[in-house]
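Put briefly, the fold is written as integer tokens. The lines below illustrate.
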Amino acid sequence: MTAPDDGSEDDLVAGEPRRLLRTALAHLSTQRREDGSLELLGEVPPELGEPLVRALERVAGELVADDERRGEVPRSGGRLHADAFVALLLRVTDTPADQA
């Protein structure tokens, strides 16, 4: 894993450098299909994909733990993966408190 060179080593999101996750997510795009659905496309290189997967797994674990804490049936499968992806995307694109 490549460390950020902008002095933001401590700017982590789900345990991974925010800058690295932003770069990984920049490899993804969307495409509207004729039926109106939206397709997520992209190929993330291994050196970016591994941290992205680790972060997604951490966020998914947090969501499951939160569901259990609230006495709800824990999310799983596609719903869990989609919710984790959206939650991670929101965290990565959020402005860090020290830069707000």
